[in-house]
Amino acid sequence: MISASRRRMLVLYVVVASLLITLGGRLWYIQVMNGTSYVKLASANQTRNIVVPAVRGQILDDVGDPLVTNRTKLVVSVDMMTLSQRKDGGDSVLRRLAPMINLPYDTLKEKVRLCTAKVKQPCWAGSPYQPIPVDENVSDQVALQIMEEQDQFPGVTAQAQGVVTYPMPHGANPAQVLGYLQPATTEQLKKDHLPAGTGYSTADLVGQAGLEEQYNQALTGTTGTDTVSVNAAGDVTGTVGGTAAKPGDNLVTSINSKIQADAQDALNSAIKKAREAGNDANQGAAVVMTTTGRVVAMASYPDYNPSVWTNGLSQSQFDALFGQSDGAPAINWTTQGQYAPGSTWKVTSTAAAVSDGFPLDGQYNCPATVDIGGHTYKNDGEPNQGDMSFAEALIQSCDTVYYNLGYEMWQRDNPHANVVTSASAPVQKMQKEALAWGFGKTTGIDLPEEASGTVPTREWLYYYWKDNAHQGQNWCKYGKADGTYVQQIEYQDCKSGNVWEPGQAAIAAIGQGYDLATPLQLTNAYVALANGGTLYQPRIGQALVSPSGQVVKQITPPVAAHLPASSGFLSYLRSALAGVVTQGTAAGAFSGFPLNKVCVGGKTGTAQVMGKVATSVFASFAPCNDPQYVVVVMIPDSGYGADSSAPAVRQIWDGIYGLEGHQAAVPGGQVPKSLPQIASTGKITAPKGYSG
Amino acid sequence: MSVTQRSYGGGPRPGAFRSRPRSMITRVTSRDSRLRHLDWILIAAVLALCALGVLLVYSATEPSLVQRGANPHTYLDKQAIFVVIGLVMMALVSLVDHRQLRVFAPVVYGAAVLGLLVVLTPLGATVNGAAGWIDLPGGFQIEPSEYAKIALILMTALLFSELREGARDPSAGRPGPSLREVGIVIACGAPLIGLVIIEPALGISMVLVVVLAGMILLSGIQLRWVLILLAVAAAGVIAALSLNLVKGYQLTRFSSFLHPSSDAAGSGYNAIQAKIAIGSGGMFGQGLFHGQSVSGSYVPAQSTDFIFTVAGQELGFVGAVVIVALLGVVVVRALRIATRADDSFGMLVAAGIAIWFLFQAFVNVGMTVGIMPITGLPLPFISYGGSAIFADMIAVGLLLSVHHKRQVFE
Lengths: 692, 410
Known about the structure:
Chain A is of the alpha+beta class. Chain A contains 24 helices and 25 strands.
């Protein structure tokens, strides 16, 4: 053999040895030294966590009838914002998707196009930023395939989504109280500190108003995960483990569906009547509360069917829900409507006068007119009625008695502070009393939206003037000394808007002028009057009950404050208000009412609003000697309290107690004292003695 | 061709074997003592590798077959049959006298070139983007490029030995083949390599190039010619790159091996998944038939080019090293046979086969552990596939033949 070949053969042996050692060393490095980290990678490789959303809890009425029910369906949604950014506008994705959900491509294409003036159904009427549901009941397999092959289906999601239904037992539709579900906004995800991986995404629905928002966390439950093994192609080969989703808790409310339905009917017919009389009357509110601070019914007019939210909202539907011209049905006017309370306010003015030293047993003059601060104020066109007691003044609702009281208290109450130049000016005595009855601030009810109303304190006046003299309404710019009526007022306001004038004090004493209250605030104040002085934070929720029936949390209305009035004085007021119904301003509205069966006390309110028909108010309680409920109806733009609201209130009382041919909503006029029972099977049993 | 005629010059007289025209069959059954002269270590290593291969092919294919509802033994059965047929082929080839091999060399070479031409016609079947297969009736396929390795080795060895023996004055002690001889060898190898590149089967063409280069080196060529050839080769590579002769996907695979995570879902996917599979095997493995990545089909081509990942994951470091060691045994035995061969033809054939197995095994295992680029090369004796197994076994048969010849003349 050739020696060169032999030498080179030896070199080849060395090459063999070194290559073998290289492989061995590399294997040692990968398998032995770094083995554990690769074990982790291998495990992560072949399992996927799939979020299993929890079934949302139900919202029940006080006997266990569901007002909102939820179940989950596997919904395939298409995010057109993602698809439209692709070169072909997502066409290829839709073409792949169509056969998977058994839809012809053309039909799918129609489903995801946006509705416009020219494009009619089928089309997507909702926001283009919202994922568009294209199939609401796909199999697990199809859903998993779509989620696993995200490179094939960008912008397409398949996940279990809650499907909400509204059974409306007995016709009860407290739509604005319940609120609605909409996809969570990024801000909400941030605000609620929702951790990654909880299953929340912008496609997940969260409560966006009402009880759904207030109790969102409890109702949502805890999402679970399904850990499935998948192969490289993304096909699921089995379930490895995971955590089960924990369904959300049920919310038992104190809403009684029958009373709620009665309240809705009463409000609707009152508004219908007011419109027939030629008034605008495009809003209204009726509230029924127990004297322990629980809300039994809460009706806001106009209402709407809440299922409108579930399939994507068109712009016209959105406008209809929130547009003022349609009365904004999405707004809960019981908590967000701010109306002049009118003479119902006189109970706080009486309390203020008595605590300021006016004798309770004194006699007060009720002339036809009074002159205060250069203006003449009339007693609603009534003649001079001479001297009368507070009780008589309430029964007859004599305005001039309260104008005088307001003016006299203004004179005695720190006159130097009335030229208000700072926010720290002391609160007037009259307004202090109104604040103590819960006006001018939110009640703290378990609803996310609530207006605070207005009590014109000096602080409020200061800011009101500061905000509007040279900005906002800009009185000083638009006001004219010799202009129109409105321009003259603006001129005056510019000059002396910061001064708490005697006329303002007088008007404020009869619940007009700057005074504004929500129907709920008025109800809550009358609850305190009726129960002897305890002011509650009203509650709609009674308890959170787990799906297996355990009471997770009892909800009791917290005590907010006690009225600064003796129980004797409150009792005096109540008997005066009983007189309103028997012989006063509401006697006509209640004529023929079986007061011997259920004695009702109440106060009418007819608040004059500039440029509009009066706001009609009636606030009442019953039974007179031991009040159980307070019923309040407020209807702006509808006329006298006795004409519109009082008959509505009468109808509600009829429903609660089963009077005048009505069937009693609750046996013996008693709402259930115990909670409905929820079995672990999900079966709901009404409290004993009650039926759903 | 004159080469064939002259081939008898250096060997025994023609009459020596003409007296046994039915030699193959009679010799297998005869009580001839040649069994004692076989390289049993080589055979044992090959048998062990084949057995492991059958098990690993089964393990790699069973889960997906079960998932598809197919017979889980489909690939197990086929691979076992391939191995048995391969062993028969090995035995038959080992019986062929090396002088007959010289006769066969041009035939094998011609057949290989013809086969490689056929795959480029519509008769060829395309698998994974490469037209490397010829469909046969009955669902069988032939991959001519596998046999091209044998053809190249035989032809190169033949040319070197014939050209040199014909030109040599035995006493002159010429240092090595002339550049002209090397040129002829390269010219004969070029059609094979070129056709395999055209398919394209980059991995196999690399094997061919390396085997050819190795055999040229071992032929005794002077070192300065080696340097010149290297320069020419470098120029060729640059030309291939600049003329876009290399396909885009081939370049991607080459570059992604350096930075696998830069495109984890794309071309780096194989590299990452292979490393994960092997790394997760640890010291002793997850157990045969119990590999996580196997049942999930994470590693592509796991029964063929990436079968080493199954071994790594299921048998661990220990099993992987055993396989590498067994392959090492085969290569070392082949080199030993080459060293002891008593003519340059036998030496070159055995050495060429050693280089083939060494390079192919190193690239295959190397790509699964991330030290070599990913190319489509099977792991000798272990990867699933008839043509590859047959070619490997024929090569072992050639080794035994060379080994035997030496024994006979001892």
